[in-house]
Write a structure and sequence with these properties.
Blueprint lengths: L5 E8 L8 E8 L5 E10 L2 H7 L16 E8 L11 E4 L2 E3 L5 H4 L10 E2 L19 E5 L4 E2 L6 H4 L5 H11 L7 E5 L3 H12 L3 E6 L5 H7 L3 E4 L3 H5 L5 E6 L8 H4 L2 E9 L11 H5 L4 E4 L5 H14 L5 E5 L3 H9 L6 E5 L5
Parallel strand pairs: 10-11, 10-13, 11-12, 13-14, 14-15, 16-17
Antiparallel strand pairs: 1-2, 3-4, 3-8, 3-17, 4-5, 5-9, 6-7
The structure holds NADP nicotinamide-adenine-dinucleotide phosphate and zinc ion (2 copies).
């Protein structure tokens, strides 16, 4: 089969783990029958982008173009596309395709499919090249992986919902967080601030754990009922054995055992953060109170659309700091210092 014709778009890429992101030109496939071609307006900056660009997960191929919190306007659609039309405001998250036939895909849990195609870091099915993300002017995605954006929401502030939003919404829903439960969110970054908003919206008593004393007022404004400074042993001890559920969204090495001790009997700590280095787990905090330790990965397409619709109904978006494309390297340094309120979003109009 001959490769479909490609077209060129501007993008930002890194050529090695040590190099900054810089302007480049990349190829996208021309839309096939089932494809949607999207002019990208906004792309959120996830800490996963930084882990990936710097090869902290040890599978990055270069040049690497990150970005999986994409919002844009549909420029063209293939002849077989049914639900999306030219001019629609749409979203693309971490996934751009999957096998469609395995039990995970049939359950709408495409994130767990062995044949899933990630927005970056996978292989482009048609061109055979690495997939390239949303730090670019345009992307082509098969219709079934394109999401509808509620019309009442600010599209720039919707972009982070495509990863930070679904990654926190999904475990809170899966483990049925709701009224009467005490829920901890660890880390007030891109994921954490969405975790606070969703846990609050689901009716739980929300406690935010932070290493940054300066974030206390924001955490309360975002929906936390209490804020605990995790480096303060007395504040931590006062919360011992009291949590039903804790969602850990920290990007770096930290002490999990301190959080296991805060769970009730049968409580569950769910890790969504993906630090570069392994975290150590002590046996006793888990076995003494039959506590659980779980993980969760983004969410499938049906649940991502459900999350977006929920946000439309409840007027929930991300708190964003808009940046130009050429500010991305500075934004990464600020993200490493936990200095972002609470998600950077690139205005792709700046990529001229
Ligand atoms: P982020 O915006 O940089 O937020 C991370 C937060 O973690 C920081 O704001 C900070 O919160 C806290 N933190 C940072 N360094 C710390 C340290 N050394 N000790 C304790 N706390 C620390 O990152 P993000 O975009 O939310 O992503 C968070 C993690 O989730 C990343 O590892 C990312 O790759 C991963 N992720 C996973 C999934 C998934 O599907 N499982 C999806 C997306 C992202 P405070 O200032 O409040 O302490
Ligand atoms: Zn992400
Ligand atoms: Zn599958």
């Amino acid at each position: 089969m001959s490769k479909p014709i490609a077209y060129s778009v501007k993008a930002y890429s890194a050529v090695s783990a040590q190099s900054p992101l810089a302007a480049t030109t990349i190829s996208r496939r021309q839309p096939t029958e089932s494809d949607v071609q999207i002019d990208i307006l906004y792309c959120g900056v996830c800490h996963s982008d930084l882990h990936f660009v710097r090869n902290e997960w040890h599978f990055t191929q270069y040049p690497a173009v990150p970005g999986h919190e994409i919002v844009g306007r549909v420029k063209a659609v293939g002849g077989a596309v049914k639900k999306i039309k030219v001019g629609d405001m749409v979203g693309v998250g971490c996934l751009v395709d999957s096998c469609r036939t395995c039990p995970d895909c049939l359950a709408g849990l495409e994130q767990f499919c062995a044949g899933t195609v990630m927005t970056y870091g996978s292989v482009e099915k048609y061109l055979g090249t690495p997939t390239l993300g949303g730090y670019s002017q345009s992307i082509v995605v098969t219709e079934d992986f394109v999401l509808r954006i509620p019309a009442n929401l600010n599209p720039a502030a919707v972009a982070p919902l495509l990863c930070a939003g679904i990654t926190t919404y999904s475990p809170l829903r899966h483990w049925k967080v709701g009224p009467g439960q005490k829920v901890g969110i660890v880390g007030l970054g891109g994921l954490g601030h969405m975790g606070v908003k969703f846990a609050h919206a689901f009716g739980a008593h929300v406690v935010l754990f932070t290493t940054s004393p300066g974030k206390t007022a924001d955490a309360l404004r975002l929906g936390a009922h209490e804020v605990v400074l995790s480096k303060d042993e007395a504040q931590m001890a006062a919360q011992a054995g009291s949590f039903d559920f804790i969602l850990d969204a920290v990007s770096a090495t930290h002490d999990l055992n301190a959080y296991f001790n805060l769970l009730k009997r049968d409580g569950n700590l769910v890790l969504v953060g993906a630090p570069e280095k392994p975290l150590s787990v002590a046996a006793f905090p888990l076995i003494m109170r039959r506590r659980s330790f779980s993980g969760s990965l983004i969410g499938g397409l049906p649940e991502t659309q459900e999350m977006l619709d929920f946000c439309g109904q409840h007027n929930i978006t991300s708190d964003v700091e808009m940046i130009r494309m050429d500010q991305i390297n500075e934004a990464y340094e600020r993200m490493l210092k936990s200095d972002v309120k609470y998600r950077f979003v690139i205005d792709l109009a700046s990529l001229k």
